[in-house]
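Pasting as-is:
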Amino acid sequence: MFEQWGIDETAEELKSDLHMGLKTEEAARRLERDGRNEMRAPRKKTIIESFLEQLNDPLIYVLIVAAVVSVLLREVSDAVIIGVVVALNAAVGVLQEGKARKALESLKKLTSPKAFVIREGRRMEIPAAELVRGDLVWLEAGCQVPADLRLTQSANLKIEESALTGESLPIEKDAGFTGIMGKNISQGKDISQGKDISRGKNISYGKGALHESDGFQGERIPLGDRRNMAYMSTIVTYGRGQGLVTATGMDTELGQIATMITESREEMTPLQKRLGELGKVLSLLSLLLCAALFAIAVLQKRNVPEMLITAISLAVAAVPEGLPAVVTICLALSVTRMVKVNTIVRRLPSVETLGAVSVVCSDKTGTLTQNRMTVEKCWLEGRMHRAGECSPALCPDFYYGMVLCNDAAAGKGDRTGDPTELALLDLAAGFGMEKEELERRMPRLGELSFDSDRKMMTTLHSKHDATENRQFGDGYGHGEGGGKDRGRIPGSFRSMEEGPGRQGRAAGELRAAEFASAGTRPGGWSFGSGGKTTVSYTKGAPDEVLKRCTRIHTPEGVARLSERYRRQILAAVEEMSGEALRTLAVAMQTESPGAVEEDLTFLGLVGMKDPARPEAARAVADFREAGVKTVMITGDHVDTAFAIGRQLGIAKRPEQCMTGEALGHLSEEELTDRIEDIRVFARVSPAQKVRIVDGFRRRGEIVAMTGDGVNDAPSLKRADIGIAMGKNGTDVARQASDMILTDDNFATIRRAIEEGRGVYENIRKSVIFLLSSNLGEIVTMFFAVICGMASPLKSSHILWINLITDSLPALALGIDKNDGESLMKQQPRKAGESLFARGGLLCTCFYGLLIATVSLTAFLMLPWALLRTNGLAVTLENLTQILQNGSVLSKAQTYAFTVLGMSQLFHAVGMRDTQRSVFRMNHLENRLMILACAAGFLLQFAVTEIPFLIQAFGTSPLSGKEWMRLSILAAAPLFAHEVIALTFRKRK
């Protein structure tokens, strides 16, 4: 709202004074009324709340009911096992999420702790949290904006807003700008109590500097175009200014984003939804099983209490109690592996969600690009050069101009200033030219600072004798690293301003009196002193600099700037602009003793941009091969966004781009229809980023959103999985995310998706293995009971088998190594895809029935042989009759028990890869599977050979021949696996 109002109008609305600020008593009253200028922190969950949250799962509910029933049936051991599994599952989840939370807490804090405010005419430093609406705040280079401000003064003010808007370059601010003409425009009066704080610079405020933006009549101006506003948490990179606080705390733009994050509900991941559905199905199956067996017992006039115990035991067996622990441990181990590839996962289920991602929505600045302006090309002496090929030997003055006409500093570990100026210093440093050394030899005597009207900057330097300069010019590649004063102007030429918080103005910024003492003439042009030769360098917008040039540097020397040369320069500018490069021209003046911007000699052009990360293009190509779409979402301009998108292979045509303005005119239905063809969204607001994520989700896509700025936080929270940058990202973005890339490497997401697909595949294998094994137990019991025969298994047998198969073998499958390259060539699974899709249900039923068949065969082997030996017909009635013999039943149950247990272990080995022969698998890659099978076979042997276990389980000892026959029978799932693998290999 305030961006559309004049300065006096804003002051009147806020009941503040443009000169004196607020009174101390009024500020205290407003602080009491409106609260502190802070973000509301969400309440931290207690350990108990976190623990209970881990238990909020339908499958866990089933296990808890099963444990209670086990206690009622006096099967305490089974209840203990289930209880330990459930507790372990919750504890691992709490510990893992706690570690991620601690890792985040080390990356604090975003909001500004201090602010310079004018109250009762005095400038003072106060905690930023004590700012109130109407406070008059002072801004200068290097400070963080402490609240949302309507600017009342702006002296060459530039603010870096990339964290809030996605704009890759600092925004030039103008206090006099309004999108819609206000009712009471300021008349350009002095607001500094008679003291001209501008120091002769261009202060833009009031009526005299008013600009009207035709594009915003009658509507709110996009955040990135509000040139008269400054927003909380953004950074002042250049100049200075003042502004009235228009919003504090949760009412700021940053606070509104925080509110959007808080209001976004945390949704279940695809795996959680599938496991929840599985829990419900298993619950229903257990109830139906109990009811069916109980009804059969009544109809067959069996021992009802005994059959009830068997029915309940079987119902408990139907629930794979090891599954939650397998899933949790599998995810936790995956999280540990991902830490090694620079990834912090805040929520365990997020790992698996990565495997289902079908759209990666990525912020541009800092994610796909390096968030560091870099010179890409130079136009010099009539030719275009790549930056690394443009040697200073071609034209030393071109490099002198870039380095000396520059207010940035790029010392070791100390980079301050405008990103474009830092890029120029980086280019020069690549050839060994250091600013500190050059300024020592050619100290700055004065300057004409950059402003938005001239669109250029000029600095005046003393130039020593030709011999010294030539010595410096011959020293390229041998520049020494700067010390602590690198990039500073010599002390005798720096001016200081007294006052709280003022450390000194920009290098070379001289007062009028200081110019006079150095020998000046009107206009601020500075003469050198002591008879030394002076030179001035100018850099700025090419069209403006070119207007002031009359000569040009050529390979043959300095020549008159003819129309032919002008056309060449403009063609070079057009070529660079076509590649979305930001262009600057460099010129010089040697014939005047002052900092003159007329009759210049044109030296050359530089083209720079925030370059794409080298690894991003490869990652985008890998995503495409994996069936994952990459979409760029940025607050930057559409031309810049499309250039980067085309370079990375995200977009090929301009029609694949959409601006925030166009997006704002689309309904939700229209957006959903059109979003499939859009690959670049430019100039969008935080709320529009959320709309884009929602649009893809409505189309059934699983969306990953990456970002590093405050403006990305709401969409990070809304996406199926939010991925934040850990090194250069904001704390707000990290807190809103599910996963953090500690190396800020976009390509790391590719490895994370591969890990996610592998995790899902392992969990799927574990689920199919456990359910097919349990199905074998159920069918074995159910078939025998329906036929009126004695039960093939005792309740203790069922629980024992579950112990040896639901634990280590299932866990071994959960941590199995997959073929990552093969997984990344598959299309992502659909959002609603079942765990039993892609042949999973058929596999479960086939192996379940096969295990049941071999178990029943083992159960009937002895009765069958006895009937044939005695010459009796093998009928159901005779089989039922002979099984009533206690010793025969005990041996038959031992056979069934042994085969059922071993067949499930053989089945686990084959489940590592259902399409590959066990002879082609590298079994040493999964040593846990070897251990699980060895332990399982040993325990199964022990329960039939150790006397006290024989007594406990009611089994019978087996001979060597019996073990041989039963082992061959139990290996049936492995034989079937080999046939299936052979068939698949031939078909392939």
